[in-house]
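Pasting two entries for a bug report.
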Amino acid sequence: MEKNQQNQWKRDFFTIAGGQTVSLIGSAAVQFSLIWWLASETASPIMMSIAGVFAFLPQLLLGPFAGVWVDRLNRKIVIIAADLFIGLVALIFAFFFLFGNPPYWSVCLVLGIRAVGNVFHSPAIQAAVPMLVPQQELVRANGWSQFMQSGAFLLGPVLGAAMYASLPLWIILLSDLAGALVASTTVALVKIPDPKRQITQRPHFFHEMKEGAAAICQDRKLLIVTAATLLGMVFYAPLSTYYPLMTSDYFRADAWHASMVNLGYASGMMLCAILLGKFGTIKNKFPVIHLGLFGMGISSLLCGLLPVGMFWFWVFTALCALLGASSNLYNIPYISYMQETIAPERMGRTFSLIGSLTSATMPLGLLIAGPIAESRGVPLWFFVSGIVLLLLTLVSAWLVLVQRVDQAEEGAG
């Protein structure tokens, strides 16, 4: 009986994760193609910053409210609706490219509209996983999930580069719709239990959002790591917008080389994810979280010190692989810790709040980074973000250690 239950959760988990992976491959190909088109057409950090702001603004504005609805509605329906919405947006925008080159601002607008779907999709998926997976298997399951997602981020840009070189953008956009249909079908096939919850007739948004924030604030160690990470993300988050410019403007390389950067980053993510999936039991997650943050900081710092030249481009690609591995080394234990310790009926609000706060770091960071990168060059911002992230990681690790000592002393007393 126990073996059948184990096989059942694995079957359900991999069915959903497999469909989401197919969808992510299409989305990553579309995202790469749109961003590369914008980068190659404009060569402007300011324009890339604007695109980044549009992509993250919906999460910042809608995230806390979306989390309340995720905890009130059937999570399966939320996931399917969000997937289909993203696919529909891609289909509509495909017509714009079919009849000519749309203005640059329209790409920024589409990135923002697509992000509205992700505002609901991400917390719904993260809150659904603990309803399918036993608690002791969450690190392993998240490792498997991140492995498949990393594979999608690996294949997506390579596929996007190949398609960009041979196909018009309107056809590339249709791959997003195809992936959304596959993901929606696989979710529809699986029964996702919803947690028992006490729900009033009308949502009290601010009260329910406050409950999501309380779930973080009540855990001092989680609060310390979250605060340090969010502050670090103000400096680190803009880097995701500047990778194409490092390739095209600083190293003077082409779309194929840009796909190699994405390949390196995704390969690092996959290697880390598969190791965590294999050795999935991590009792004390905070040292691993801090090790991941430290790796992100040192990789960013070194990227900012690289000179121009194709040899150094490949060093940059290798450092991006280390960045990818470090990000998963941080992210997987962090998410698993939240899934283990936060009540299921509050999980959608909590994950959505974290997503909103993280998204707030992107426009704030871009407002600071954009003018500096425009005048002093993108590599400087890699260096600055690395220094800041390293310092914050050391402070966070020390505060968490002090908190653990205090808790041990209270327990002994």
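Entry 2 (this is the one that rendered wrong in the viewer):
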Amino acid sequence: LNVAVRDLVQSAVNRCWIVTPYFIPPRWFMELLTDAAARGVDVRLLTAGRSDVPLARVAGRHLYKRLLRAGIRVFEKHAPILHAKCIMADGRTGIVGSYNVDTYGSRRNLEIGISSTDPGLIARLEEEFEIRTRGSDEIHLDAWLRRPLLRRTGEWLLHWLFRI
């Protein structure tokens, strides 16, 4: 799945939208996303604002500053708990499955993802993404940088613990 995800993000020209409840990606995925944004791709991330694994949510938030500075839009869905996993590119290809793009899942979990180029399915996934982001909180860089130091420190610490 790593190869399929890598190919999908690298081939994105106009947009690459990601839905994941847990966002603690390996470095290669962060680099793909920031590279895509630098190419002018509309990269958006929808992740959990409320999670069944709250420490993972806090750990993943450490990366928002880097994403936002790269021009990536970040949304948090608060209710109901988000558990979908999907990556879509340019309205032409999507991957849906159990796959969390993270180091833990890649090494320890049996994950599955289904890739599709069916225009109807991809259109429906993108439509659902737009509906879900409208009902979510968008994170903005200026407000994000004003978070209390204790919160930022906790996010940093959990991020590095989850990466081990």
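Dev reply: Rendering is fixed now. As a check, the viewer should reflect this: The radius of gyration is 15 Å.
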